[in-house]
Amino acid sequence: MVLQHQIMDSGNPNLHEDSETQAIGNKCQHLMADRISSLPDEILIHILSLSLMRDAVASGALSRRWRNLWKSLTTFKFDPPNKLGVDKRDVITLCPKVKKSRMKSYAKWVDGVLQQLQHLLNIEEFWICSDLFEEGDPNLDRWMSFAAEKHVRVLQISLKYDKGYSSSWERCLFPTHHFTKEKAFSVTQLSLSRVEICNPGFNNFTFLTTLTLAYLTLTDDVCETAFSNCSILEHLHIRCVHKLTNLKLVGSSLSRLRYLELYDCDSLKNVEICAPNLVSFKYGGINTLFAFKGVPKLFETLVLDTNTMEVEGMSPQLCPTFISLNVLVLFIDARYVNRIGFPWFLQEACPVLRKFEVHIDTSETNIELESSEVSKASPLPHRFLKEIELSGFLGQSYDMELVKYLVKTAVSLQKLTIITYQKVLRMSSDEVVCYNGKEKNSSKRTCKAALHGTAPHG
Q: Is the pTM of this model over 0.85?
């Protein structure tokens, strides 16, 4: 009977095929199982926080498990490309009819999302980034009211997507009236771009640690009032502001200011800085008179566009000594190299400097310049300077003398970098320095021959 049963089984090959098919099916079901949905809410919400706003909201349609997860997010970034799928530069060239239609769609999207977030007590970040606003648009006022009610911590408004100015860049008023003292205290980071600010503009934002102002009109009185109330401000970024002529960063209210950036302020004439905890300062713009007072801790980075500014005095008698400065970056027009007191910068102003960058702009000159003053100066040893970088090197007498002087002065030099194309200062929230131009092999050969036996080894 056993033999007969075995013979009967062996004569039915479909039995093995069915079992194999079932095994494969079970394996496929196991592999195709929705394991993500079984993860804890905290992990799923974190995943959604890394997604685009439109994708996070759309996830609610996946299943009942996902329906309300996105409503637990605390960061909300609204921008037209996110919703409309248009290129950021395409928005600027739209005809009025199309632009109005897209703004209506954008506003409907934002309103629809916010209506489902009324249960939230607090939100972490709230961004409104759009170039679709027009004068008198009520949407911004309504959305800022929501952000204030939800005690937002990071608030960013950017009514632009292009890199230049537009005709409507100061037509939308930043609705500060929503941010009373009770509601503004939660805001620690504020970024405003292409909005109009009226006095009193920031009186109630007393807990700001980071403030960014870009592409807007900023008068002296609004500026002074704003900063006088920011007693714990640490980061201040001012870019492309209009009508600001005298900037005074003084007083006990700025005692915690550590990082300062000023770029392309077209009316700026005078800057007075008295910030005892300032550690980094970067400037690029028009010809401006600077007065540094009480900056003993400026030790990380000092970036100066010396083509377009005047540091008060430019001498040991009138300009301070940056006793702790580690990195000094100078952008210089080749025609004005002779006017920069390099011996004073190294010996008097920055006695413990560790890295020195000199970026020479050669775009405006094709002639042989006269020898600079460094050729006449006796190099005094600078025992802390270990790294030197020079860009825009052409192999002319002025830059050759500068390189030789720096090498002789830096007795502890470990690294010397000579770049035959130039670096230029660019205003950007992400990158300050970018490369421009091509290397010149003739300049490289000239530099190598002239520095033979002079540059540090190893």
A: no
